[in-house]
């Protein structure tokens, strides 16, 4: 049976902490590269003052945990990968909000 599923990539869908980002994406080159959110902590019924937290983004990643990579196309050291195909990396946990713990900043 043929797979008739339609898939859409939605780069603006935010997961996890990214849901708290209030900065509007301008889709322009003037978009800020860093985003901060306000966090409020309550500890044993003691309300601490809100603090600004800077979120890391794709530009802050310097390495990935190799144990989280399930598959890569093209495979390392491949010299015959067709130029009309799209390279990709498949992660064990594909959701962007779940990948933050496996990167090195």
Report what the structure shows.
The chain is mainly β and 105 residues long. It has one domain (16-104). The protein is 4% helix and 26% strand. The strands form 4 sheets. A two-stranded antiparallel sheet has the order 1-4. The radius of gyration is 19 Å and the shape is elongated. It starts with 34 loop residues before the first strand and ends with a strand.
Secondary structure topology:
Layout: E1 35-39, E2 42-43, E3 46-47, E4 51-55, E5 63-64, E6 69-73, E7 88-91, H1 96-99, E8 103-104
Antiparallel strand pairs: 1-4, 2-3, 5-8, 6-7
Taking strands numbered 1, 2, ... along the chain, how are they ordered across the largest sheet?
Answer: 1-4
Radius of gyration: 19 Å
How many beta-strand runs? Answer: 8
The proportion of strand residues reads 25-35%
Q: Give the SSE string.
A: EEEEEEEHE
Q: Rough shape? A: elongated
Q: Summarize model confidence as the mean pLDDT.
A: 76
Number of domains: 1
Helical content class? under 10%
| Oligomeric category | single chain
Helix-strand makeup class: mainly beta
Number of discrete helical segments: 1
Question: Biggest β-sheet, characterized?
Answer: 2 strands, antiparallel
* Low-confidence sequence ranges: none
Please report the distance between the alpha carbons of the first and last residues: 44 Å
Structure keywords:
two-stranded antiparallel ribbon; elongated; 1 helix; single chain; two-stranded antiparallel sheet; 105 residues; mainly beta
Quick overview of this protein structure:
With 105 residues, the chain is mainly beta.
């Amino acid at each position: 049976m043929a797979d008739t599923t339609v898939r859409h990539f939605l780069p603006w869908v935010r997961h996890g902490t990214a849901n708290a980002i209030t900065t509007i994406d301008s889709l322009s080159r003037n978009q800020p590269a860093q985003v901060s959110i306000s966090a409020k902590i309550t500890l044993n019924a003691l309300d601490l003052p809100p603090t600004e937290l800077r979120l890391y983004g794709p530009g802050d990643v310097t390495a990935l945990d190799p144990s989280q990579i399930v598959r890569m196309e093209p495979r390392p050291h491949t010299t015959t990968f067709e130029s009309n195909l799209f390279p990709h990396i498949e992660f064990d946990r594909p959701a962007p909000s779940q990948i933050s713990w496996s990167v090195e900043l």
